Amino acid sequence: MASIRIHHLYKRYGKDKHAVVKDFHMDIEDKEFIVFVGPSGCGKSTTLRMIAGLEEISEGELYIGDRLVNHVPPKDRDISMVFQNYALYPNMSVFENIAFGLRMAKLPRHEIDQAVKNAARILEIESFLNRKPRHLSGGQRQRVALGRAIVRNPKLFLMDEPLSNLDAKLRVSMRMEIIKLHKNLETTFIYVTHDQVEAMTMADRIVVMKDGIIQQIDSPEQIYSTP
Ligand code: ADP
Ligand code: ADP
C-alpha cells in the first residue's frame, strides 16, 4: 500500500486557466526518499505546495495514507515542510523556535522539552539551544529549521530547495546530514531541487519534470544511465 497517492494533479492559474502542473501522477511508498528535479519554473514547487496544502489543487486527488486530503488544511496533514529561507523567528531562542509548533498544539511542557531535546540530539545542535538565530551560521540555522520540522514527528517530510542558500562545501555536508536524517526518522521524504547531483546522491527515486509534465520516474542509476 502506497503511503502517498498523487492522482492526476493539475494546477491552473489565471483567467485562461493556464496549467503549470499537468497530470502529475505517482504513488510513493512508505519511507521512500523522492526527489523532484528539473529546471526553474517547471512546476516542482507548485506540486510540492499542493501536497503541503499551501496551494489549492485545481484537479485530481491527493491521498496521504488512506485519507483524501484535497481539502484538509496544512496543519492537519501530518506533514512538515522545510524551505530554503529558514524562516526562523529572530527573537526566539533556538529552543523556542523548535518548540513553537508544539506549544501551539498545547502539548504538556515536559513532552515539549523531551521532543525538542530529542530533535536537538539528532541534529547535534544541543550546545546552542539558548542562542538566537542571528548568532548562528547558515548551516546551523538550517539545522534548526530541520529540527523544527522533525520535532513534530510527521508522516511526511517536504523540502523545497533547503540547501540552495548554503555555500558549496556546506551543501555537500548538509546533503549527507539529510540522508542520515532520513535513515534515522524512517519517514517518507519529498525533496525539491534543480541540482542533479543532489537528486542523484539523495533519492531512492527521481521524478524528472519539464514544463509542468513528468518526463521520467526512476532510480538515480536508471535515470543517469539513460542516454
Ligand atoms: P519550480 O519550483 O520548478 O521552479 P514553480 O512550481 O515555482 O516551478 O512554478 C511553475 C510555474 O508556475 C512557473 O512558470 C511560475 O511562474 C508559475 N506560477 C507559480 N505560482 C504562480 C501563481 N501564483 N500565479 C501564476 N503562475 C504561477
Ligand atoms: P521559487 O522560484 O522559489 O519556487 P517563486 O519566486 O517562483 O518561487 O515564487 C514565489 C511566490 O510567487 C510563490 O508564492 C508563487 O506562487 C508566486 N508566483 C510565482 N510566479 C508567479 C506568477 N507568474 N504570477 C503570480 N505569482 C507567482
UniProtKB/TrEMBL annotation:
What lineage is on file? Bacteria, Bacillati, Bacillota, Bacilli, Bacillales
Report the protein name in the record: sn-glycerol-3-phosphate ABC transporter ATP-binding protein UgpC
Q: Does the keyword Nucleotide-binding apply?
A: yes
Q: Name one GO biological process term.
A: carbohydrate transport
> Does the record's keyword annotation contain Ribosomal protein?
no
Keyword vocabulary terms for this entry: ATP-binding, Nucleotide-binding, Transport
What's an example GO cellular component term for this entry?
ATP-binding cassette (ABC) transporter complex, substrate-binding subunit-containing
Q: Which GO terms describe its molecular function?
A: ABC-type transporter activity; ATP binding; ATP hydrolysis activity
Task: List the source organism.
Answer: Paenibacillus hemerocallicola
Q: Where is the ABC transporter domain?
A: 4-227
